[in-house]
Structure formats: structure tokens, C-alpha cells
Automatic annotation (TrEMBL):
The keyword Hydrolase applies. Transmembrane segments: none annotated. Its EC number is 3.5.1.84. It comes from Achromobacter veterisilvae. Keywords: Hydrolase. Residues 25-426 form the Amidase domain. InterPro entries: Amidase, Amidase_dom, AS_sf. This is Biuret hydrolase. GO terms for molecular function: biuret amidohydrolase activity. It comes from the Bacteria. It holds the Pfam family Amidase. The gene is atzE_2. It is an enzyme of class 3 (hydrolase).
Length: 444
């Protein structure tokens, strides 16, 4: 344990040592680094500790930033060759500034799926990070925030700033044995974040566990709204969790068995588990897809570049964006209206409950080799976000909790809460983690 006087320097030194111990994974996960600058910044922070007004709630935390957020001096290329030659950012994104002001030391820019358009983490330009949880074959780390999840899982960083459109914080967290949090819209400042879909994108957090996500959330949203009625002080034995009745048939056996074991432990701890139909969850993803919301918005953002530089796009990304040009306006608007209705239906069904519990992803991380076939890639990509996407479509806070990385189970438990009830969800997630022992495994 490092003393307070060298807390930040010791934390950065340890992350650099872990990075050096995993050179292949580091090359895949970290795209730009500031090793010496981070050490110097850490020394300066340690020297001034205690003199900063309000303190530094994230002191001792090392930060990685997804390549879709501006960092002064680095190119915000979003994992794409298309923007590789763009000028460096002139200033930090709002959240990068906030995290650094709270005491986190920035170390690296993290890899991602090109323009965040993919749930598996493949990247043809900068390499594909691999999950450290399963080593029987090279398997994807999940996307689009692949590099951040790998960095946190291997101790190269303590927190990763990421984005989440359909599960981009939570899918890689599940595949890599860490925690990924997607907040309600508007909770975090998204200034300086490159969008894929303005309707669904939000900044998110990846940390080792729910306690780490909660710590970061308190630093980023210290003056948040009054506590939700489902407050963090409520014991787990008094909480009600909803289990959507359509989910079980979607799960591969290992995920189903792991999820069932977790539910049994929660029952033993006194949590109330209520299985019920949740058609709004089952329908939300299909509504967004049928309305072409993401494709249309991605195309609108990229149309000028696609018109002159489409050949430089990843072949799994550019052609899907081009499909957005064909989306009828009436279909897009109808989907937006229907999603608003489904949000109301979810709110009504969840009256008196704390969160929905599901696995984060219905399958294990697929081997990279099987994804060479484009049809297989599209199928597995859709499967990967089939359980996470409803939180984005219905604007809900959602967190993936680490499962059992030591046992090689790249399985996450996802808790999805009530709109605006972010702090309550994080508090409940930390309680769940304690019951399951996930947090203790991560800290040992």
C-alpha cells in the first residue's frame, strides 16, 4: 500500500508495471500514452495533496480515455484510419477535465471499435483487444469500448472513460470481468465526445467493480438530484428485482447456469426476485432497428466523409452507415414516438421495484477467427447487444457487474434501474456485488 504522500505516483507506477508485463495486450488496448508526463503529474499531485479546495475524491486512480473523447494533444480518431491524420484536440473533453480535476491521472488513450459501431471490439486499423478471462483461443474483448475494459481488467488503469450506445460500456465489461456503467441521459457532460447516435449515446464508466463506478459517479455528479425512493441505505433484503420472463431462452448453457447460481445467492440473502413479462424490454430493440435510428444518425454524421473517403472505413462499419441513407423519415419518427411510449410502459411495470436483473450478454466472447465470415459477425454482433440495448432505447441507468473472472467465466450480471435513479442503482449494485463475492475477488 502506498502512503498518502506518494499515492498518485505509486498508482501510476503500478499501472505502468502492469502495462510492461503485458506488452501484447497493451499494444492492442492502448493507442496513445503519456507515461513520463503521468509520472510527473502524479508527483506534483502528491506534493500538493491536502491543499486542493474540496480535496481530490479520485486521488490514486489512473485514467484511460476512449478514443472518441477529446484529449488535448491527441487526435480524436475514434479508432478509425479516416481521422488518423486529423489535427490533435485543442482541449480536453468536459469529462476528461472533470476526472482530472477530481484527482485521476490520465495515462492512455484506449482502443475501440471504429466510430463505436460494433459490439464485439474488432478493429481492422489498430488491432483487436482480446479478453484476458478466456485463453483457450483468442476471443474478443467486446465493444465498442474494448481497450478500456482490457486496460482495467489487467490493471493498466483503474477507470476508463467510455461511451455507450447499445451496450458499449457493459458488454466489454462482462467479457473482461470488470464493471461497466451506463448512466441516464444528461447525468454526465458529453461535451467533446464524438457521437455515433445522438439519440442513444451517453458517456459511461468502466472500473474494477461497482464500488469503483460509484466512487467515480460521486465525483462527476456530486450535486445530483435528491435520492430516489429506492435509496442506497435500503438493505438488500428489502429490495425487489424483476426478472423478465423472455430472457432465459436466449442464454447459452454456461451463462444460464451462472445466472441461476447468482439468483439463488440473492434469494438466500433476502432479495425479492419477481419474474414477470416485460414486453417493453423485448420490443425496444426491434423498434429502434426497424426505425433505422442508429443507421440514420450515423449516416447523417458521416455523410460528407463517406462521400469522398468511404474506402478507408472499416468494411464492417462504412457499409452499415451507408444504409442510413435509405431510412424513411416516417419510419425514423414513428420509432422515436414508439420508444417514448415504451418508456412509459417500463416505468409503470417497475413501480415499487429497484431494478431489472439479466445477464449482460447471452453468450461467451466468441473467438476472433469465427468472425471472419461477415454473416457470422453480424449475427454474433446482434446477439452481443440483445440484452443491453433496451437500457439505451428506454433511457435507463444500467450496470454490468463482474462475474467470476478467476474461474474463466466471462459472464456479467446486469442490473438496470429507473430513469434518473443512477445513484440508487449503483448503491444496490455494490450490495449485490458483496453478496456474490465479486468485489472481494477483484480486490484480492
Amino acid at each position: 500500500m502506498y502512503l498518502d504522500r506518494d499515492l498518485s505516483f505509486g498508482a501510476v507506477s503500478e499501472c505502468l508495471a502492469r502495462t510492461a508485463a503485458e506488452p501484447v495486450a497493451a499494444a492492442q488496448a492502448l493507442l496513445s500514452r503519456r507515461d513520463e508526463e503521468a509520472l510527473a503529474e502524479a508527483r506534483a499531485r502528491d506534493a500538493l495533496r491536502g491543499l486542493t479546495p474540496g480535496g481530490e475524491p479520485l486521488a490514486g486512480m489512473v485514467l484511460g480515455v476512449k478514443a472518441c473523447f477529446d484529449v488535448r494533444g491527441w487526435t480524436t480518431h475514434a479508432g478509425s484510419r479516416v481521422l488518423a491524420d486529423a489535427p490533435p484536440a485543442a482541449e480536453d473533453a468536459a469529462l476528461v477535465r472533470a476526472l482530472r480535476a477530481a484527482g485521476a491521472v490520465l495515462l492512455a488513450q484506449n482502443n475501440m471499435t471504429e466510430f463505436a459501431y460494433g459490439a464485439l471490439g474488432l478493429n481492422a486499423a489498430y488491432g483487436t483487444p482480446l479478453t484476458p478471462c478466456m485463453t483457450d483461443a483468442p476471443r474478443v474483448a467486446g465493444g465498442s469500448s474494448s481497450g478500456g475494459a482490457v486496460a482495467v481488467a489487467l490493471g493498466m488503469a483503474h477507470v476508463a472513460l467510455v461511451s455507450d450506445t447499445s451496450g458499449s460500456a457493459r458488454i466489454p465489461a462482462a467479457f473482461c470481468g470488470v464493471a461497466g456503467f451506463k448512466p441516464s441521459r444528461g447525468r454526465y457532460d458529453d461535451g467533446g465526445m464524438m457521437y455515433l447516435s445522438p439519440t442513444f449515446d451517453v458517456p459511461g464508466i468502466i472500473a474494477a467493480d461497482a464500488a469503483g463506478c460509484l466512487r467515480v459517479d460521486k465525483a462527476l455528479a456530486p450535486d445530483s438530484a435528491p435520492p430516489h425512493p429506492a435509496c442506497g441505505a435500503m438493505p438488500l433484503a428489502g429490495r425487489i428485482f424483476v426478472l423478465p420472463d423472455h430472457v432465459e431462452d436466449m442464454l447459452v448453457p454456461q451463462v444460464r447456469n451462472t445466472f441461476s447460481a447468482w439468483l439463488e445467492r440473492l434469494r438466500e440473502a433476502g432479495a425479492v426476485l419477481r419474474r414477470m413479462p416485460m414486453p417493453c424490454i423485448a420490443q425496444a430493440g426491434a423498434v429502434a432497428r426497424d426505425g433505422g435510428i442508429i443507421a440514420a444518425e450515423a449516416y447523417a454524421l458521416h455523410a460528407p466523409r463517406l462521400a469522398v473517403d468511404s474506402a478507408r472505413y472499416d468494411p464492417r462499419v462504412g457499409p452499415r452507415m451507408l444504409l442510413g441513407a435509405r431510412v424513411p423519415a416516417h419510419a425514423y419518427l414513428a420509432a422515436q414516438r414508439r420508444l417514448a411510449e415504451l418508456r412509459g410502459e417500463y416505468d409503470a411495470l417497475m413501480a415499487g421495484a429497484d431494478a431489472v436483473l439479466t445477464p449482460t450478454v447471452p453468450m461467451l466472447p466468441p473467438p476472433v477467427a469465427m468472425l471472419d465470415d461477415n454473416d457470422v459477425y453480424l449475427r454474433e454482433n446482434a446477439r452481443a447487444f440483445s440484452l443491453t440495448e433496451f437500457a439505451n432505447r428506454l433511457d435507463l441507468p444500467s450496470i454490468s457487474l463482474p462475474g467470476a473472472p478467476a474461474a474463466g467465466n466471462a459472464v456479467g450480471l446486469m442490473a438496470t434501474g429507473l430513469r434518473g435513479g443512477d445513484r440508487a442503482l449503483l448503491a444496490a449494485a455494490a450490495q449485490i456485488e458483496d453478496v456474490l463475492g465479486s468485489a472481494a475477488r477483484r480486490r484480492n
